[in-house]
Amino acid sequence: MRVRFPSIRPDRYPAIYAATGALFLVSYLIAPGSLSWTALVSMLPFAGVLALTAVGQTLVIQQRGLDLSVPGIVSLSALIITKYPGLDDRLILEAMALAILACALAGLVSGLCVSLLSVTPLVATLAVNAFALGLVQWLSGGIPSTAADALSLWALGTVAGLPNTLLVAIGIIAVTAFALNRTVMGRRFEAAGANPVAAHAVGIRVPFYTIASYVIAAILYAVAGILLAAFLKTPGIFVGDTLLLPTVAAVVLGGTALTGGVANIVASAIAALFLTQLGQIVLSIGAPTSVQLLIQSATIIIGMSLKSMAEGIGRMRGTKGGART
Amino acid sequence: MRLSGQRQIAPINDSASVPAALSMHGVSKSFGSVRALKAVDFAAYPGEIRALVGENGAGKSTLMAVASGMLGPDEGSVTIGGSPVQTDNPTAARDHGLGIVSQHPVLIPDLTVVENLALSLPRAIRPKRRDLPAWFREQIRYWGAEIDPLARVEDVPLAHQHLIEVVRVLALSPKVLILDEPTEHMNASEVARLFRKIRDLAAGGTAIVYISHRIHEVKAIADQVTVLRDGEIRGTFDAASVTEKGIVDLVVGRTLASAFPPKSVAIGRDYTPIFKTGGLSGKAFEDVSLSIRRGEIIGLAGIEGNGQREFLRALAGLEASRGEVEVAGKTARIDTPVAAGRARIAYISRDRQTEALLRPLSVFKNIGLSSLARNSTLGVVSSRREGDLVAGSMASLGIKAGGPEVPVSTLSGGNQQKVVIARVLANEPAVVLADEPSQGVDAGARLEIYQILRAAADQGRAVIIASADAIELQGLCDRVLVFSRGRVVRDLAGDELTEHNITHAALTATTLRTQASTRKQVSSLARFLTGDFAPGLFLAFSMLVLAAYVASVNPYYLTAGNFGNVLTLATALSFVVLGQLTVMLTAGIDLSLGPLTGFAVVVASFFILDDVGPAGIALGFFLALLASLLVGTVNFALIRWVGIVPVVATLSTFMALRGLSLFLRDIPGGLINSSVTAAIGTRIGFVPVAFVIVILLAIGMEWATRRTRWGLSLRAVGSHMANARRIGVPVGAVLFSAYAIAALFAYLGALMLMAQIGIGDPTAGVDYTMMSVTAVVLGGASLFGGRGSYVGALLGALLVQQVFNVTTFLKLPPAWQYLLLGALTISAVALYSHFRRRTGHV
Fold first, then answer.
1. DSSP string, B396-442
2. Chain A hits for B372, Cβ within 8 Å
3. Is there a single domain that holds both residue B63 and residue B152?
4. What is residue B443's predicted lDDT score, i.e. its pLDDT?
5. Which of A118, A204, A252 sits opposite B837 (nearest CB)?
6. pLDDT-based confidence at B511, cuts 50/70/90?
7. pLDDT of residue B258
8. Are residues B316 and B223 part of one domain?
9. CB contact under 8 A, A297 and B31
10. What pLDDT, in 10s, does the model give residues B762-775?
């Protein structure tokens, strides 16, 4: 018997891909304008940013955590990348390194609290979020800064017609997915999330992977913050605030169980695209922010309902549960 | 198989003189593809002690779970005391007179012993709350154990939890008493007391069903023995006329000779051992030295709790040990599983579901896990090499699965165990440790597993097996070490290696076993520190220190005006916090409470205006209340009926509420009637009346969660939902009450907010979500449910508000509010969980 290697091909998680396809079809029917090249090119970078944060959230949730520090960390990164260079193009790379380092440090704090101090993820990341937001407020003095010219010019640039920012997001997500599915560390990471007790017995250093999930997630948020700053040029000081709920929504729609275990990185990224395009349609038909929020909320509820219905059917077919004495 | 010299007796119901106390007809139950019960008929009669025996997985516990309503059958009916009982309803079974002492005590871990009794005993037989501790002490005295009635069940040793369970069930004076492996954790004197009790009850006309895998106990206590195998009744026998061996043969359903692979002939006479331990000692075992040669299978035997399992786990690096270990002539470290793995020692856990399988992942990923490094180049796993390995081991071990990609959780017990063994063997270990390798595996797969283990040994490995089944050890092992009180007391090999000798050595050596002496009494200080009220004191102390410091820096801090303002702001938050805690006690969370306050204000801002009469104002109050309760109901429905986890469910209502508020008012508008805001803001001196109300409510809720049936149910649902359901708590109704009450408190918070901002602002109140979670957590509540204090949470709310307030007096930038709160929360939670962990495993 020839065994196929576990693939990262999309057909393993069909629901969100089908839904995204259907959404673009609907877009074509009711708001063809949202599919014009200019509309897509302005939508895709935002989808990329949301996808990066959603992938980070996926990693943390896969390790049985939850990361509420997305707003704080994204805002911190966006502030550092704009404030540190002070419009000086030569300092951009330095600022990037600093932003990523600072955010990784914030992630490390969450990770250490969760794995060594046994603080619940919700509380640890809530506190780190408060911390990061406080830092942003303090450093900025409440005034947004503007990105250096070279950075915003780069964000406007394209390769083969695709925006640079989108390409960076895609590249990073692809590397993350590859690392998780094809490397020794990635597979151990997955095992540590799927069953920490069993992973420990097999000789996997579970705390290392738990901490790693928060650090890697924070780095992904940092990149998202940099891209967002580059794209918006003068991001609001709390630019990350609106990202938290959509990341959780993307993880849910992507099919990653909130109880940990299986991480569908690519599916989370596609779900981010789905949510962003959904927002575009709602905007293009002239609905206000309020309706956007209602639709986001309904998306989660419908997504979760379908999932639990599917699981219910699965149970009835008797695919779950084992022998009992 | 033929049984000579045994008479299969007809069930007594043929005599038809006494009606059955419990009868079950045509009961079938399947778990996935496994048919646990196949149209089983079973009856128990008044005054009769009926033993139910069978292997693991034979269906004993499933049958009794159906009888007691804990599990709904696929088909079949249950009759108790002559009247048909609704299945899948534990309360109905109990009310008809059925009591069951389960294998796992049906107790609520976060409740005290007394609270457990108060919640689970029916009103008719329940002593008054204040008499309960004395009543319990009286009952437990019979068992010769000392259990503090005010201790949390979680802190009570497992053996004593079983006694509490027995006391609880006996208090029901059941007409049918089911005991499921009751002696598992009992010492000899407790077993004797139990048997005396059982005989007394039977003499008094109770029907007893006694489940056990200890055949000698069954012989000692039972009148009749019913054998269950593979979900079917294989006969009922007169206990006096059947031999132990006869029962065992029936239970196993096969002759011993064919059930095991031939023993090794390959073990040479002169050899170098592949595995050696010298004077290995740990917490539960002492000075164990053994030496194993290639190809040998060693068994570890002993009565449960004599150190054999801990020894095996220590070899795997899962328990601390000291002493020498050698693998293939080289000294090995075994202080962690990583080190043991490096020494080529591999472990197969007894607890397959929690300690071996990665349930949600595929068969492929489960098998490949331990040999990832072997199959990779520069850290990248080679798909070809891994694929070949998995295909090879699936074929050679005969793993039956829908393919390598199916989740391992869909496989049968035997195939799951083969997956675990395949994983272990894939990394080519020198030593294989297997704890109960055939547990929960059906008879056919069992032989295959024995053959796999024997083949693994024949390839030159050392295999060590711990098993409670002496027959298995006799059939499979080349040598068996019998443990007693942590030491090896017998080393059986060759002709001496018989089931009889193993059992004999284990039993005779443990006759001196004493009362559980390792039990540490939790000191009253430790209990306080881990209790619900310590965080409150910690908070009060922090607040005083903070206030003293700020007062020393800024003279304007300690003024009535400032305190009045802080209290007014804190009151709104406090209401929300009381709601948040109510939900958190059920192990839920309500993120929508913040925007809900804002939403309620927006709704009210359309009615409670300056130019409206009293009726309009009343309508405004009413509609805002209605809206709040509606939101609470929606949260409940999403969580309970749609099955969304609370965080996500309330996150979506969080978003929806923000949307709705913006929809109703895209910009702030609707000035609130000024006399209404004035009335809400009434103060006595500098103290707002509303603050007094919130204090009273907190105290009232504190009392209610400890003393009322509703409160105990609330905490029970949060602490252990499954057990709460089993003892008859209406889980759905309790959850509904929690989310409705949370919404009600949010409404009260909204009234305060309305008085403060005086206008319908669509973005107001959102911050209360995070602030309330922070305050509740500061107050010491557990996010895992069951634990928390309203007074503590109230103090948490005050501290949060105080921190916001002092930063201005200390002339700190506003950012410090967040920094301080963040640091405070982390340190508080780390501190609380540190204390709970330290005393949690006494």
1. HHT---S-TTSBGGGS-HHHHHHHHHHHHHHT--SEEEEESTTTT--
2. 184, 187-188
3. no
4. 66
5. A118
6. very low
7. 56
8. no
9. no
10. 989 988 988 898 89
| Chain B interface, best mutation among A297, A302, A315, by max B CB count within 10 A | A297
Q: Mark yes or no for CB contact B355/A291 under 8 Å.
A: no
> CATH number of the domain that B288 lies in?
3.40.50.300
Which of A2, A3, A69 should be substituted to probe chain B, the one whose Cβ sees the most B Cβ atoms within 10 Å? A3
Strands (E), B257-401: 273-282, 288-293, 297-301, 321-327, 330-331, 345-348, 376-377, 380-381
For residue A318, the chain B residue with the least C-alpha distance is B32
- Contact criterion met (CB < 8 Å) for B34 and A323: yes
Provide the pLDDT for residue B651.
85
Closest Cβ opposite residue A202 in set B57, B370, B833: B370
Residue A235 pLDDT greater than 60, yes or no: yes
User: From CA B570, how far away is CA B749, in angstroms rounded?
Assistant: 10
Q: List chain A residues with CB under 8 Å of B61.
A: 324-325
Which tens digits make up the pLDDT trace of A62-121? 999 989 999 999 999 999 999 998 888 889 999 999 999 999 999 999 999 999 888 889
Q: Residue B822: which CATH number? A: 1.10.3470
B572 and B665, same domain (yes or no): yes
pLDDT at residue A38 greater than cutoff 60? yes
Domain boundary among B253, B273, B302: B253
In terms of domains, do B376 and B287 share one? yes
ipTM: 0.87
State the Cα–Cα distance between residues B4 and B10, nearest whole angstrom.
17
Task: For residues B581 and B659, state if they share a domain.
Answer: yes
Closest alpha carbon within chain A to B439: A325
Contact B358 A195 (CB under 8 A): yes
Residues A243 and A74: beta-carbon distance below 8 Å: yes
- Is there a domain that residue B684 lies in? yes
Inter-chain CB proximity A191 and B813 less than 8 Å: no
**pLDDT tens digits along B377-396:** 999 999 899 999 999 999 99
Contact B358 A296 (CB under 8 A): no
- A32-313 is classed in which CATH architecture? Orthogonal Bundle (1.10)
How many domains does chain B divide into?
A: 4
At residue A299, the pLDDT reads: 84
Residues of chain A numbered 72-131 and touching chain B (CB < 8 Å) = 113, 117-120, 122-124, 126-131
- Chain B residues lying within 8 Å of A126, measured CB to CB: 770, 773-774, 825
**Average pLDDT over chain B, rounded to whole?**
87
Inter-chain touch B33–A201, beta carbons under 8 Å: no
Q: Does residue B659 share a domain with residue B722? A: yes
Q: Is residue B5 part of a domain?
A: no
Residue B767: closest C-alpha in chain A? A130
Q: Do B239 and B353 share a structural domain?
A: no
Residues B298 and B369 in one domain: yes
CB–CB contact A138 B830 (8 Å): no
- pLDDT tens per residue across span B204-256: 999 999 988 777 788 889 999 998 887 888 888 898 888 777 777 777 665 54
Tokens of B106: 């049906």
Instruction: Answer whether B359 sits within 8 Å of A194, measured CB to CB.
Output: yes
Flag whether B717 is in a domain. Answer: yes
Q: How far is B819 from chain A (nearest CA, A)?
A: 5
Give me the domain span that covers residue B727.
Answer: 524-840
pLDDT at B510 over 80: no
Residue B87 pLDDT more than 90? no
* Number of other CB atoms surrounding residue B838 within 10 Å: 12
Report if residue B329 sits inside a domain: yes
What are the tokens at B613?
């009469």
A contact test, residue of B787, B819, B820, B838 with most A CBs within 10 A: B819
> Do B607 and B623 form a contact (C-beta atoms < 8 A)?
yes
Q: What is the pLDDT of residues B625-655, one digit of tens each?
A: 999 999 999 999 999 998 888 988 998 899 8
C-beta separation of A65 from B783 below 8 A? no
What are the φ and ψ backbone dihedral angles of B274, each rounded to 5 degrees? -90, -20
Please name the residues in contact with B120: beta carbons below 8 A apart, sequence gap of 6 or more. Answer: B106, B168, B727, B728
pLDDT exceeds cutoff 50 at A322: no
Confidence band, pLDDT 50/70/90 cuts, at residue B13: very low
Which of B232, B253, B274 delimits the end of a domain? B253
| Contacts with B788 (C-beta within 8 Å, 6 or more apart), sequence order | B532, B581, B584, B585, B776, B779, B780, B781, B782
Give B146→chain A minimum CA distance, Å.
Answer: 32
